[in-house]
Amino acid sequence: MQLCPPVPHLVLTYGSQTLDFWRLLYALLKQIHGSKWTECDAIDTQIRFVKSALWYHGYGRPELYRLPSDGSAGSRELLLAFSWLLHRISLLEQLLARNRVRTGDETSVCMCEDDLSQSEKGTTEIAPEYGPEDRVDVRYLQWLSGRLRFQWRSLHAQHQEQCKLLHKIHLLTTGCHVDQILGHFSVTEMDLIRQPENYKQLVQLLELETMQLEAFLEWKQLEPVYWQWMETVLDNMAEEGSTCKLQDTHIEKSRLPKATSCCPWAGSLTGQINKLSRDLMALRDQLHELVTHRRSAWEEKVKTRAEDLQKEDFAATVRKIQEAVELKLLDLSNLCAPKKNKMHGLCRLVYRSKHSASKIGFSRSVSKEPAPAVSATEVIRELQMREASLQRELKQLREECRQRLDEIAEGLDGVICISP
Q1: How far apart are CA 234 and CA 253, in angstroms?
Q2: Alpha carbon 203 to chain centroid, angstroms
C-alpha cells in the first residue's frame, strides 16, 4: 500500500526537481487506474502515461502537453495539473479509499438510474470509413461474440460459486463475532483464525493506514494555505501570459506597415474576396429556393399521409396511440416519483436471517446505529423494474423498425417482404 506524501512536502519540488514531480504523478495516477507501477519504467513512458491520464480525466491546458518528453522543464505546469487533480477528482480521497485495509466481505452495488440517452450525448463519434481492404469478416465477428458470451457465462458461474462459499462461511460462523451487528466472520477473519501468524502483517497494514489518515488530517488543516499560495501562482502565470501577448501584438503591429507597403497583390486579394462574397450570396439564394421546394413537397406528403390514415382502421390507430401514451405516462410517473437515496459503491456483505434481523432491529436502541444496508431482494426488484422498462422500449423500437421496413418494401417492385 502506497500513498502520496503530505502535500506540504511537495511545495519544495516547485521549480526544482521536475523529474521527481513527473514520477510522483505517474505513481499516483497508476494507483488511481488500478495498475502496477515500477520505478524502472523509462521517464518518457511515465510522462506519456501522465499526459494520457490527464487527458482522460479532462485536463485541457495545452501547455502541459507541449512539455518535452525528457522531463527537463514544466514544474509549474505539473503543479497546476496536480492541484487540478486534487480539486477535480479528489485525488487523495480516492487513494485512501483504494488503499484501505478491507477486513470484511464487500461487493459493489449500483442502484443509480443510468439514462443512456443522456449519457451518450456528446460522446458519439463519427465512424471511420473503411475501404474494401479494411473490411472485417462477419464470421470473425460472430466468433468474437460467441467467445465473449462464453467468457461472460464462465464469469457468472464463478461469481455464483463465490456467493455460495461466502454464504456457507457466513452461515456457519453466525453468532461468533464480537460485533453483534455483524454476527459472523468474513473470509479475511476466517483466514486469520486458521493462520494466526498473519496477524502481524494485518497489524502492520492497519498501522500504515492510520499513518496515512493522520497525514490526510494534517493536510486538511493546511489545505487553505496551499490554495492561497496557488492563487498567487496563477496570478503570476496570468501576468506572464499577458506580457507575452502584448509583446507579440507589438511585434505584429511594427511589422504590419512594412508588409502592407510591399504587397502589390493586395488589390487582387480584395477582388477575390468580393468575388467570393458574390458567390456566397448566390449560393444562399439557391439554398433558399431549395428549402422552399422541399417544404412544399413535405407539406404535400403530410397531407397525403393524413388522408391515408383516415382510410385505415380507426380503432387500430387509436389503440397504437393509447399504447404509446401509456408508455410515456409510465416513464413520466417514474421520473416524477420521489427519488430514493440510491446506493453506489462498495458495501459489506452481512448475512441476515429473519430471526437475526428482528433481533437486531429490537436491539438498535441499546447498540450503535448500523451502517446503511441494502438487501439483495431490493436490488433484484430494482433490476427487474429496469429490465421491464428496457423491454418496453425495445418492443416499441422493434415495432417502429417493422413499420419502417414495411414502408420501404412497399416502394420496391417485384419484392415480397415477410415480416418476422
Answers
A1: 29
A2: 36
